[in-house]
Write a structure and sequence with these properties.
Structural class: alpha+beta
Shape: globular
Distance between the termini: 20 Å
Oligomer: single chain
Radius of gyration: 17 Å
Largest sheet: 4 strands, antiparallel
Strand content: 15-25%
Number of helices: 6
Helix content: 40-55%
């Protein structure tokens, strides 16, 4: 609301096939990465020194989200704050010969792009279905819980 954005955020998921790849894109319309905060957290967690961070460009600092231990959450909960999530996703994508990239802009949100070779999808069809079911259930619970706790007038 402060930035002229709606009070309720929007997350979109698109899945396409292009050039023998399955493309999965997840985008939000949030505030993007807060680079000064990310630099502070990286130093606080011992992922880089202040001197190293001053030499890093924003993209390199943003890449720290994939490091074990990095989290912007102040409190640990059942679903976030342990600093394992993005690294686990990156490793899972790498394990199936996929690629993970992202784009961000201050106050413009973040877009994650997962690119998986179709041959891997075909080889791992059953495994992908099971993982997809688990992720979907987990995300439904997480998003539902987050929405209820943040925006419900009853909490």
């Amino acid at each position: 609301v402060k930035l002229g954005k709606p009070s309720v955020g929007k997350i979109s998921l698109t899945v396409n096939v292009k050039d023998q790849y399955l493309l999965i894109q997840v985008r939000d319309d949030g505030r993007g990465f807060n680079m000064p905060e990310m630099r502070r957290i990286a130093e606080e967690k011992g992922l880089a020194t202040g001197q190293q961070l001053r030499k890093m460009n924003n993209q390199t600092v943003a890449d720290l989200i994939f490091q074990l231990g990095f989290s912007t959450k102040k409190e640990v909960s059942q679903i976030s704050g342990r600093g394992a999530g993005m690294g686990a996703i990156a490793n899972a994508v790498k394990d199936i010969n996929g690629e993970l990239s992202y784009r961000f802009g201050q106050d413009k949100g973040v877009k994650f792009i997962i690119k998986i070779p179709l041959r891997e999808c075909q080889k791992r069809q059953k495994e992908i279905k099971e993982i997809s079911k688990k992720v979907t259930r987990s995300e439904e619970r997480r998003v539902g819980k987050e929405c209820r706790s943040r925006w419900s007038p009853y909490h």
